[in-house]
Design brief:
152 residues; homodimer
Chain lengths: 152, 152
């Protein structure tokens, strides 16, 4: 059985998970610190989803780090199925959150200049960008694990 | 090589493609007929994406129908890779469009009652729902084809 780079237990996967943790934390912090995010459904949804991605990615980063150091291989079909499905669901959720946030920001900027002071708006935009990067990394993890799955 | 139900050239795939064509057309029509959709970026984006999904799904529905009637099997790795990647990209695009539209509608309903008469708003909402169903079907097609791919 060949080793797919980026699948569970490899150093590439560890980097992906670290990236996910960093970018989802950044997105959460930009959105929630000092900004009235709870006025908008889409922003609350982004905060909720990022709050799900952070523990998931952090746990899997720990597992990957352990496997890289000890040298174990995680090739059980059940584990890989759960991880792959979790990544799959989270990638859709984070894309949905990022898109909702981006479209709401766009509407706020165009239609309601007074509702969106430039300081807040740039923070919202940064948060949405981080969420997009986070989605991309989660989708990559999902794809790598899904690729390995049928060969087990 | 086992036959994965829902992969290219099966009757399940034909049903999925028909569903995608119907729901994406419905979403496009609800959004574009008699409504000023071009005022909002998210709505224009939805119309663009649905305009991409319709020809893609319709063409593949024709291919699937032909294969079901004639009894051919499409198991070339290249073709399956292209179809699978196309579905993958379109599923992300249609999810993004559906979420953007839904969040903009939500904002319009809550904050700007006068901008969104109930007749228009219900049509926007119907369009977004159709787009979500369309996303679900495209993602299912993508998953089935991707599942078959590594075994070729």
């Amino acid at each position: 059985m060949e080793k797919v780079p980026g699948s569970l237990g490899t150093s590439a996967s560890f980097s992906l998970r670290l990236g996910q943790t960093v970018f989802s934390s950044a997105s959460l912090l930009f959105m929630s610190l000092g900004v009235e995010f709870y006025s908008y459904t889409a922003f609350c949804y982004l905060v909720t989803v990022m709050g799900l991605v952070i523990p998931w990615s952090f746990t899997l980063a720990l597992v990957d780090g352990y496997c890289v150091i000890v040298g174990c291989t995680l090739r059980q079909r059940g584990i890989l199925l759960i991880v792959s499905m979790g990544d799959w669901v989270l990638s859709f959720l984070s894309l949905a959150a990022a898109c909702s946030t981006a479209s709401v920001i766009d509407l706020l900027v165009v239609f309601q200049g007074s509702y969106c002071p430039s300081k807040f708006c740039s923070r919202y935009q940064l948060s949405a960008s981080m969420a997009f990067i986070c989605w991309f990394l989660v989708a990559a993890s999902s794809l790598f694990n899904l690729w390995l799955l049928p060969s087990l």
